[in-house]
Amino acid sequence: MSQHFRERFRGDVELSDLPGHALLNVIRIPHSVALSPWGLIGRRLLYAFILLMAIAGIVYIDRDGYTNLRTFVDAVYYSAVSLSTTGYGDIAPVSQRARLINILVITPARVAFLILLVGTTLSVLTENSRRTLQIQRWRKTVRNHTVVIGYGTKGRSAVSALLSDGLSPNQIVVIDTDRDALDRAERRGLVTVQGSGTKGDVLKIAGVPRARSVVVAPSSDDTAVLVTLSVREIAPKAMIVSSVREVENQHLLEQSGADSVVISSETAGRMLGLATVTPTVVEMMEDLLSADEGFAIAERTVMEDEVGANPRHLADIVLGVVRSGELYRIDSPESEAVEPGDRLLYIRRTTGQQGRA
């Protein structure tokens, strides 16, 4: 049955088999060049116009050294046909000084003028080549990154949490079909891939087989199930965290291969219920979930001087102990003493004095 679902979403052409230049509108890697091709052309034309006016001014000052040159318009005309190498010959330098100026000033300016105009076209063309090489290099080197599938409300919140936790933007790849959403992700410095997360070839060009973790945050539960199934098939070792709206669909995501499932509707419902009875508890919970200010829940390795100690007696407020991939709450018998290799879930102070990392 899962094979039937995947066949429905499979395209005729595998994107992962396409060369880099064919993926220019699919993969977008943020870079420091802010000017569009039209902006680049406009700037080059402005430089060419300034150079043209400068040469026209020099020629007009020495107008007596030229035949048939009387007005400033004549000087602009001569400069235009000279810099563009047209050279009609109706205006020509006749004095020694005018010819010397042509040799030392106008000839180098002619070369610069041509470089400006031709260079504009080459820059626009080579920009695609540069982006193609950048995409090819990125696809070969990307490793241990995090892929976020779906850049809606949940996806944006997940990215904010990752960035606040210190993950570099170039280690986050966003997959979405919405171009506007991807533009917002790119402005945050994230690598973006346009396409559906249900398609294996889109997942492959996003580097999912080599990803450390994958966040599945689409807008519907059925899409989340199919995406999780596709991700687990091509990335058996990746950590998959999936979001689901309804609790009855949790087991479907777990069966599809999700390591962790977040139930958005149930979590929001509990927060709403608590807010009507104990609003201060909700305020504290929101503080713990926000990594920007106040307190946050974090995880760290056990220090050597903490081995053997009861986690309740440590300087940090410990909520649980992670041992061999299993989480033990602070009140469980397994958490009576900290062992080498354990990791602690604790409340970290995000302002003021920090806990040990």
UniProtKB/TrEMBL annotation:
The chain crosses the membrane at residues 45-61, 100-125. Residues 143-263 form the RCK N-terminal domain. This is Ion channel protein. The keyword Transmembrane helix applies. Its main location: membrane. It is a multi-pass membrane protein. It is found in: Cell membrane. SUPFAM superfamilies: NAD(P)-binding Rossmann-fold domains, Voltage-gated potassium channels. Keywords: Membrane, Transmembrane, Transmembrane helix. InterPro entries: K_chnl_dom, NAD(P)-bd_dom_sf, RCK_N, Trk_Ktr_HKT_K-transport. GO terms for cellular component: plasma membrane. One of its GO terms (biological process) is potassium ion transport. It holds the Pfam family Ion_trans_2. The keyword Membrane applies. PANTHER family: POTASSIUM CHANNEL PROTEIN 2-RELATED-RELATED (PTHR43833), POTASSIUM CHANNEL PROTEIN YUGO-RELATED (PTHR43833:SF9).
